[in-house]
Amino acid sequence: MSCAAYLDGNATPKSMSRAKQWTDEVENLYRFQQAGYRDELEYKQIDRWPETGFVKKLQRRDNTFYYYNRKRECEDREVHKVKVYAY
Known about the structure:
Elements: H1 3-7, E1 15-18, H2 24-34, E2 47-48, E3 55-59, E4 65-67, E5 83-86
Antiparallel strand pairs: 1-5, 2-3, 3-4
């Protein structure tokens, strides 16, 4: 897939799997999916916590905002709900 497809947000995933254990990537995917986005490629402007690199704030599709803490929010019991897409 070309780099342009990634940059314009029109990339379509080739496969999807569920997260098995918590990682930094799973934490950020959890935050995007809570706000109604598939992953980082669907969202344009990302505000991150400088200490952890986790997503700080996301605007949902209905124009309301989700604000996240610096610490982990995706609990172990929620990890299996996170979708991990491969492009």
